[in-house]
Design goal:
By secondary structure, the protein is an alpha+beta fold. It is built from 50 helices and 33 strands. The strands form six sheets. Strands 10, 11, 13, 17, 18, 19, 21 and 22 form an eight-stranded mixed sheet that branches. A six-stranded antiparallel sheet has the order 9-12-20-14-15-16, with no helix packed on it. A six-stranded antiparallel sheet has the order 23-31-30-29-24-33.
């Protein structure tokens, strides 16, 4: 800062030294003065001989040269040691007038670069300091004006001398002590000596900067901070004064010997931050720098942070500073904002409101300054991770942000920059406008570059982004393909990465790319005069005669190489073979033979051509024009193009499907090698197969891949054997074989994916899959029975069902019956405790406490744990199904293991039974599936009853349907419900057709079987004001609920469902968006709507007769979502569900299932629309019932009370009144005998003995029980046992085992997933008895069917 002081020496006013005198006669006076000076000097050398007044007179001249000469002479005289001592003596002891003269002389000496060295003596500097302290304390009266003037002159001259000496690095300052500080502070704060105060401030500044270690602590101890802060506040318009004051405050805050926090607290207490922020807009770069630095020190130490954040002009000042300052200041501005975001949850809003600030960030990213780039990324990173909405706002405000991630930026060797880029883009990936930005700003290339990084976590971020992009639309998928993403993803899928998700996500991305529905056209035309090839609307003419080969990259549609072979038989075969051998296997080969005959091609040439699918004999020897499109070593060449030729002209047109070409690579490079590798290792060896099974599970989502798996010899048998291997290990030994657990889990996942599709189910019936899954369920049931035994031994005989976790959808009616505060219908579905690793979403900030916050630090210490935490958080948010299985060695409890396997197995059974295959049902029956699943729902852990309950109910009910009706009964509802014919295949629909559940990775959709159409009403006055239905949200994920026409696009694999095209409208309360025709991306970005829903919320869907669609959330009107809907078309209620989502519909609002909220005036329930025919007949198989009255049932003799030892029990929730008589009870397989009660259309119940019951409640739940082995049956109505125990007398000729019997297949059945209303069946003891009996029945069923390994199953059960 030395230049600052020199620049402002003009502030030192020498007073009487400046007097304007002119005249030529002054020359003579100088000559006489010099002569007298020489005589005096030679005589005695005393200073008294020099007339100081004469010098003053001469110095009054306005002649610059004269004045400089006089000064030089005077300085030479005064600089003599004896004279210098005299000046110092007069300054200390002399009269005030003498002191003025002495100060003048010393000031002249200090100004001379040659002579001021005489003042370097430590004692001289110390004496001057003491003189300053003396004259500062010199007392004068108020009326003594002359003395006051002289005192101020002395103080100004002494301050000027000190400035010259302290600023000179050659001057020793060791003699200075801290006593001078108090004097300077008094001079600074003195109101009467402003000029002296400024000079004193300069001295203090020099002491605080040049002599930092010695004086900073002393200055602070002398309470200098309030004084300096007051100077700043009082002199805001004086840039230099504010600048040096701010620098001093920063030095105090950063001093090694100061209490940093107390210093900053004192600075903040004086509110100097107001002035500092004001100087953010200063044109003085140094003042701006020190102001920014001071605020940074306060913010980074959390001192007066809240007060600073409340300054209204803060962000505008930061924007100005970011625009006008150099890179050093810009870095500090960015750090300030980063720290504010970390420590103030609401500060980000101020940044978002300051669009000009955000617009400057892309410019900072393109800087060559590493630290500036780093802090810009850190700020954007921390903003983007706050939430998705903030990230979207930033992305919209920062045009060109993604394009800043150029290859040059990512080629920096600094890993932290790469990490920040990967994570920042990853956070933006959740934004809906990210995909359009990526395409617009060519962002695929940077992401693919990140996928090549050596750091596993960076690769994982990159693959996660690619997967997200591939899930969005065909434009993004095509961009990934065209920029070379396929081969990179193949390598990542097969790589042995430290991050297990990397290969999984790469495989998922490849599957999405294989669904790309884009074709590239290739046309080949040739004649004797002209030949050309047209690729993707670009023409490539062929002028020469010969065999023209073009190697085409199938993804970029660019020509890799071109060769023309003349019909020279000597070299043709060799050259053609070399060319074709060098061609990449994935390339498309285009052949155009012009002006040559096929007979010129010899056998060796045909051998080479066969490698691209062109076989000898396929063309006539007379053909002169040949056009062919194929692929190297491809058996599917004929699928790529047609082949036509004649002697005059040839025209060949081919459309190359990009998705097909991608999947061909997947099958060749990944799928087939994986299956072969898997089958190479025996199922029971210790080699890990986890990765292979996980990848195969993912690849099974593609249709062609599923077909390849099913047809691959031994593959399904191998999966079956993996499951059996798990079953062969005793439960108490499982912890010794973790790989066996993971292999079984992986095998069932593959089977669950395959079972969704019809083409796979038939093959799965004949390879032991059903038997293996049945064995697994029996094994799990045995384990759970053992646990129930231990629980009972401990004296706990309470119900194992926690009602809060029950699937109370079945029990909504029980609320009014028992009034026991059970959860309502549609209670939240509990998450599964399976093998999935769930990590909480944590906010991660790159600028946290482990960052170097010093201004001089050049490092950015981002710990690896932070990167992984943020990565886990993002993966948890990204809706990626089936998170990776825990690595071997991680603790995995038995409960977690069995819970996961139970969930997967029951899902497989539910998917398989949904396909109408007689062979499959027979396998189910022979394997005892009905009994083992019934036992499973009674014994399974509470945490999974919610998830597996629907699967087991669905499976058992379908088996009962098949058993009782032999496939001749069509399932129809006599009330509006979800349509089984208008749904995607992976969606599970409950038996009452009102609950939908999606466990698939795809976006599944369903429509109702009732619709709205104005044309359905005969007269306009019959049309109501609108229509209404409700949906209960059981899982608060992505669900799109609304209205659709049958033309609606439902493509689960591509993520298209209700609301995604022009034929449907939907609301999604997870993302708070309304959806319609997502192809209009620019419009869709602005379609914010509604509030976020949560578990158990009720969504009301309304459609008015004027064509307005609106929604309610728990009765709160969200406003009109869509208008002007054409009601001349048929509009169906519908919904689309993402992975692991579940919801319940109510279309009627009947007495049994009333609406949660009142229907608006003159609106009607959609179920009351005339488009639904409630009187349609249900065809049933007519069969004579063998039991009527009590012919086969005898009353128990006497008054003895029968207490059943063992029983099987279930309950039926009567959904709606039926026009036919319904029957509920049991029947025996392979027999016509049944035990049941009758429910008439007027809701009267007839017991087997003819007793009539007339329940008064609107809700009705019928319980059916059977005591085994002594065959006593009973019934319960709304939880209360009715009638008596009925003894069934059966002779030995009757064969078969008892199963549930009911004739209305649309009611909900509780097999034990929820608490029974009949309390006697709820205790642990009773559930344990039911489980054991059902296990025995399952084994008896297997024995009766003569199943394989029967003896082993019995031995396993008994042991």
């Amino acid at each position: 800062m030395e230049f600052i002081l020199k620049k402002h020496h003009g502030w030192v006013i020498i007073g009487s030294f400046t007097v304007v005198v002119s005249g030529f006669t002054l020359v003579k006076i100088i000559s006489d003065w010099r002569n007298r000076g020489k005589t005096a000097d030679s005589a005695n050398g005393r200073i008294q001989d020099i007339n100081i007044r004469d010098l003053q007179v001469l110095l009054q001249s306005n002649n610059y040269l004269l004045k400089r000469s006089v000064q030089s002479i005077a300085i030479s005289i005064a600089n003599q040691p004896q004279h210098l001592l005299y000046f110092l003596d007069r300054l200390w002891y002399g009269h005030i007038n003498e002191a003025v003269q002495a100060a003048i002389a010393l000031n002249l000496i200090s100004k001379s670069a040659v002579h001021k060295k005489s003042l370097y003596d430590a004692n001289t500097l110390q004496t001057i300091c003491y003189c300053l302290m003396k004259w500062q304390r010199y007392q004068i009266t108020d009326d003594d004006v002359d003395t006051a003037i002289n005192k101020e002159k002395i103080l100004k001259l002494l301050c000027s001398i000190l400035i010259e000496l302290i600023c000179d690095p050659e001057c020793s300052k060791s003699s200075l002590n801290s006593d001078i500080v108090s004097t300077l502070l008094l001079l600074i704060s003195s109101p009467c000596t402003k000029e002296v105060g400024k000079l004193s401030l300069f001295i203090l500044h020099q002491l605080a900067t040049v002599e930092n270690e010695r004086f900073c602590s002393a200055i602070v101890d002398y309470n200098a901070i309030p004084v300096i802060c007051k100077v700043i506040m009082d002199n805001r318009e004086r840039t230099v004064t504010v600048r040096i004051s701010l620098q001093m405050l920063v030095n105090f805050a950063q001093g090694k010997y100061n209490d940093r926090i107390s210093v900053l607290t004192e600075i903040g207490r004086n509110e100097v931050y107001y002035a500092a922020i004001m100087y953010f807009t200063s044109d003085d770069e140094d003042a701006l720098y020190w102001a920014v630095t001071l605020i940074h020190e306060l913010i980074s130490n959390d001192i007066y942070r809240k007060e600073i954040s409340c300054v209204p002009t803060l962000m505008k000042s930061c924007r100005h500073a970011l625009s006008k300052s150099d890179s050093n200041t810009q870095k500090i501005i960015l750090r300030i904002c980063s720290f504010m975001i970390i420590k103030d949850d609401q500060f980000y809003k101020k940044i978002l409101d300051c669009k000009g600030f955000l617009n400057k960030l892309p410019t900072c990213l393109m800087s060559s300054d590493y630290e500036l780039v780093h802090w810009t990324l850190a700020l954007v990173h921390d903003l983007a991770m706050i939430d998705k909405e903030v990230a979207a706002n930033i992305l919209n405000a920062m045009d060109g942000f993604i394009s800043c991630f150029t290859e040059t930026l990512m080629n920096r060797e600094d890993k932290i920059i790469t990490h920040l880029i990967a994570e920042t883009l990853g956070f933006f990936c959740s934004c809906e406008n990210f995909h359009s930005k990526i395409i617009k700003e060519n962002g695929i290339a940077p992401i693919l570059h990140l996928a090549n990084d050596s750091d596993p976590s960076v690769r994982l971020w990159a693959v996660t982004m690619l997967f997200n992009l591939s899930m969005s639309n065909d434009y993004c998928r095509l961009s990934i393909v065209k920029q070379g993403g396929v081969k990179r993803l193949v390598n990542l899928a097969l790589s042995d990465s430290e991050q297990s998700q990397t290969s999984s996500l790469a495989a998922k991305t490849l599957v999405m790319l294989s669904l790309l529905d884009v074709e590239i056209t290739v046309r080949v035309s040739a004649s004797h005069q002209l030949a050309y090839i047209k690729i993707d609307n670009l023409d490539y003419p062929l002028h020469d005669k010969g065999y023209h080969f073009i190697e085409l990259d199938p993804f970029t549609m660019s020509i890799i190489s071109r060769r023309t072979f003349a019909s020279n038989l000597a070299k043709l075969s060799k050259d053609m073979r070399e060319f074709l051998e060098a061609i990449d296997r994935d390339s498309i080969i285009i052949l155009c033979a012009k002006g040559v005959t096929i007979k010129d091609i010899n056998a060796k040439c045909w051998s080479s051509l066969s490698r691209i699918g062109l076989l000898q004999g396929s063309l006539s020897n007379q053909d002169h024009m040949v056009a062919y499109i194929g692929a190297k070593e491809s058996a599917e060449s004929s699928e790529l193009a047609d082949q036509r030729s004649d002697s005059l002209q040839v025209n060949l047109h081919s459309s190359l499907g990009i998705g097909y070409l991608v999947n061909r690579i997947i099958q060749r490079e990944i799928l087939t090698p994986l299956i072969n590798l898997l089958l190479y290792h025996p199922t029971r060896n210790s080699v890990s197969k986890v990765t292979e099974l996980e990848l195969l599970h993912i690849l099974a989502r593609q249709k062609d891949n599923r077909q390849l798996m099913i047809l691959h010899d031994g593959f399904l048998d191998y999966l079956s054997e993996l499951i059996r291997h798990f079953c062969d290990i005793q439960a108490d030994s499982l912890h010794l074989y973790p790989m066996v657990i993971y292999h079984c889990d992986g095998a069932i996942k593959i089977l669950a994916t395959l079972s969704v599709h019809d083409e796979c189910c038939h093959q799965m019936c004949y390879c032991g899959i059903v038997d293996a899954l049945a064995h697994l369920i029996l094994r799990i049931n045995k384990h759970r029975i053992t646990l129930l035994d231990k629980q009972i031994d401990k004296g706990d005989d309470t119900c194992t069902n926690d009602s809060s976790t029950s699937r109370i959808a079945f029990f909504s009616q029980a609320d009014d019956i028992l009034n026991d505060h059970k959860p309502p219908r549609g209670s939240p579905r509990k998450s599964k405790t399976n093998l999935q690793l769930a990590s909480p979403v944590k906010r991660f900030c790159s600028t946290s406490s482990d960052l170097d916050t010093s201004l001089n630090g050049n490092t950015f210490n981002l710990q690896a744990s932070q990167v992984l935490t943020s990565l886990d958080a993002y993966i948890a948010q990204s809706n990626v199904d089936n998170p990776p299985t825990p690595r071997v060695g991680e603790f995995l409890s038995y409960e977690d293991t069995y819970a996961s396997l139970t969930n997967l197995t029951t899902y497989c059974f539910a998917r398989l039974i949904s396909h109408p295959l007689p062979e499959l049902y027979k396998n189910y029956q022979n394997a005892g599936i009905l009994y083992s699943l019934w036992a499973a729902i009674l014994s399974c852990h509470n945490s999974i009853k919610e998830s597996v309950g629907l699967y087991i109910e669905y499976t058992i009910s379908n088996m009962v349907i098949e058993s009782t009706s032999k496939g001749k009964c069509a399932r129809h509802c006599n009330y509006p419900a979800l349509s089984m014919s208008n749904r995607t295949p992976s969606l599970i629909i409950s038996p009452d057709h009102l609950e939908a559940c999606n466990e698939s990775w795809t976006f599944e959709s369903v429509l109702a079987d009732v619709y709205i159409n104005k044309g359905a009403y005969e007269h306009p006055e019959q049309i109501p004001n609108g229509w209404y239905y409700e949906v209960t949200i059981k899982t608060p994920g992505i669900i799109q609920i609304g209205w659709a026409r049958k033309e609606c696009m439902m493509q689960p694999e591509k993520g298209y469902g209700i609301g995604d095209d022009e034929y449907s409208y939907a609301f999604d309360g997870c993302r708070c968006k309304k959806w319609h025709n997502i192809k209009n991306i620019s419009r869709q970005d602005q379609e914010r709507y509604g509030r976020e829903w949560k578990e158990g919320d009720v969504i009301s869907c309304l459609l008015s007769k004027t064509g307005d669609i609106s929604y309610w959330l728990n009765g709160y009107h969200l406003g009109i979502a869509f208008s002007n809907i054409d009601l001349n078309h048929a509009w169906y209620p519908g919904a689309s569900l993402s992975t692991e989502q579940q919801c319940i519909f109510n279309f009627t609002g009947s007495k049994m299932h009333p609406f949660k909220y009142d229907v608006p005036s003159k609106y009607i329930a959609i179920g009351l629309s005339p488009t639904f025919n409630s009187n349609r007949k249900v065809s049933r198989r007519k069969k004579k019932v063998s039991i009527s009255g009590c012919n086969s049932f005898n009353d128990l003799e006497g008054n003895l009370t029968y207490v059943p030892e063992l029983m099987i029990y279930y309950e039926v929730s009567i959904q709606n009144s039926s026009t036919d008589t319904e029957r509920y009870g049991f029947w025996w397989t392979n027999n016509v005998n049944k035990f049941y009660c009758k429910l008439t259309s007027d809701r009267k119940i007839f017991m087997p003995d003819g007793e009539l019951l007339d329940p008064a409640e609107n809700q009705l739940i019928i319980g059916c029980g059977l005591c085994l082995p002594d065959l006593h049956g009973f019934f319960a109505i709304n939880g209360q046992q009715c009638g008596q125990y009925y003894k069934l007398e059966i002779d030995d000729s009757i064969q078969g085992l008892p199963i549930p019997y009911f004739t209305n297949f649309n009611n909900r059945i509780n097999y034990g997933e929820s608490e029974f209303l009949y309390q006697a069946a709820n205790s642990n003891i009773e559930r344990l008895k039911q489980c054991r009996k059902l296990q025995e029945l399952a084994l008896l069923q297997i024995v009766a069917a003569g199943g394989a390994n029967t003896s082993e199953l019995f031995d396993d059960y008994l042991n």
